[in-house]
Every structure is written in structure tokens, then in C-alpha cells.
Amino acid sequence: YDGHSDLHVGITNSQGVVYNYDQEGVHRAGSGWEQCISIPLVQPDMWELLQHWDKLLEEFSLEEAWLPHRYEEQQHNCFTFALAFVNRVRQGRAREPLSKAQFTESFLLPHTREASRYLTLHQQLAHTDVYIVPLAEQEQ
């Protein structure tokens, strides 16, 4: 990622299948997201929510709002899909919905900043005469 293009956003079910929305509608992808930034949305102690997550996500993805003809690049896109699902879950837990700005600030920016620092370091190391050797198990 070069930092100049838009990122694509999706939500995973408990099996790692990524639900994502674009101009062709909702997709369910079991692969192709290996180079993604994974952002946890649910705390591990929320086991009751985790038990229903897959069903909630599947039902949500089938709603009319996510039909292909409703896609609009700036206002009704993959980000809208992810945020709407998060807000649906929050609503079910009697919590206030997040705005785009709140969602971005709370969930996306901290992780993308960290990834950006890592990628910058990786690119700098890749263009220098540095060789990285993993530590032997006993040295770790």
C-alpha cells in the first residue's frame, strides 16, 4: 500500500470469511485479504455477542440496503457497510451509534497509523544493506 489510494473495508465472521460491499453488492471472501489490517471490534469477554455474530452479519448482509444498485462510491460504500453493521450491533447492546468520524478515530486511525509506521520501516530496510535474521528459539 502506497498511502495514496482508498482502502477497502470488510467485516469478518467467526470463520474468517470477509463480508465486504462494492458496486457488485456484498461479497463473502475466504481469501484475498491476507494483506489486510485486522481491527478487533469485539472484546473477548463478550461471548454472548460472539455466539450470534455470524448470524447477525449474514442477516445484515442480505438487507436491501446492500444491493448492488444502491452502491455509491462516496456515500454508500464498503465503509458505510462496515459502520452500519457496527452500529447495528451497538444498537442491539443499547449503545449510541458511532459517527463516521468517531468510528475512524476510535477504530481505524490507531491501527492504520501503526501499520503505516511498520510499512515505512519495512520499505526503508528493504532499500538498505540490512539483513534481518530471526532469533534462535533459545535466544528469544
UniProtKB/TrEMBL annotation:
<dbReference type="InterPro" id="IPR032016">
    <property type="entry name" value="MKRN2OS-like"/>
</dbReference>
<dbReference type="InterPro" id="IPR053921">
    <property type="entry name" value="MKRN2OS-like_C"/>
</dbReference>
<protein>
    <submittedName>
        <fullName>MKROS protein</fullName>
    </submittedName>
</protein>
<feature type="domain" description="MKRN2 opposite strand protein-like C-terminal">
    <location>
        <begin position="1"/>
        <end position="125"/>
    </location>
</feature>
<dbReference type="Pfam" id="PF16044">
    <property type="entry name" value="DUF4796_C"/>
</dbReference>
